Structure prediction request, 359 residues.
Amino acid sequence: MKIAVLPGDGIGPEIVAQAAKVLGALRSDGLKIELEYAHIGGAGYDAAGDPLPDATLKLAQDSDAVLLGAVGGYQYDTLARPLRPEQGLLRIRKALGLFANLRPAMVYPELVDASSLKPELVSGLDIMILRELTGDIYFGQPRGIRTLENGERQGFDTMLYSESEIRRIAHVGFQIAMKRAGKNGQAKVCSVDKANVLDTSILWREIVGDVAKQYPAVALSHMYVDNAAMQLIRAPKQFDVILTGNIFGDILSDEASMLTGSIGMLPSASLDANNKGLYEPCHGSAPDIAGKDIANPLATILSVAMMMRYTFAREDIAQKIETAVRSTLQQGLRTGDIAEAGKQRIGTEAMGDAVVQAL
Ligand code: IPM
Ligand code: MG
Prediction:
């Protein structure tokens, strides 16, 4: 297992160090794990003048999987856009063809009170947002800021989805729903679009419906994105797999993360057509708390579990990591972001050590 490790910026290096400890412990279980480090984001800019240095992309291309911390920091906010940390992330997704972004939102029984919603609305919540990651208005051309004849400036972007892009993400969605059905009963996909307004969405809805014919065991529904945003807060447990495009998925996945009350707990996977993947926590680089040993490393550690599940097809190891995380929560151990009154607060390092202990 050759893993490229890209700690990035802010709290990235601290949380990735804890995930690397977990990987180290798995090594003593007999897994042949090889880690190689490189810079991305602001760290890439500092080291090589580029948020995605060539050496980093090459390492990622030559590895079986990528573990990423987070990118971004105040000191980079004034750089020209091509040099900004997020560009490193967008470029590596595109260059590696990571079109399928899996963002689970689940509520751990131990953390049900961390949600801003009433416990009965979220307890047992376990949904999967599947976001298309390499198309849509994120990458569509033309885009830019132009000056009109009357001298006024105008910004423009292009929302684009080709049939093949929609088809391949839809297949992933139905397949994930079928796998999850074992646990949850009926396999369900809710495809989210804006087909009442956007032509891109009319095609999206048509193609998703067409792909669905190959998965008769999966119940497909369609929902407009504005309604989906509302339903996620009103009754989130009605969803199982939410299948959507890049921009809607960006927004809905942040919303869904807060249902769990603890963005510090949520991992993600971005997969290519061969299950090679980039794994990262859903949260950002949190520069305000960087270097203080208070960030929650669990989302990154759980991203390693997803890596074992999806890229290396080691469901056993994935569950072992997830069980270890559960056990630290059951012991009452909490980083500040998920601590209720009366629970012992521990730091980033100590949380990483506790997970390693529990493995
Ligand atoms: C995310 C982030 C990125 C995105 C940013 C940092 C470019 O918000 O991964 O959701 O918009 O995709
Ligand atoms: Mg986002």
Summary: The radius of gyration is 20 Å. The chain has twelve helices and 14 strands. The mean pLDDT is 95. Residues 166 and 204 are 6 Å apart (CA to CA).
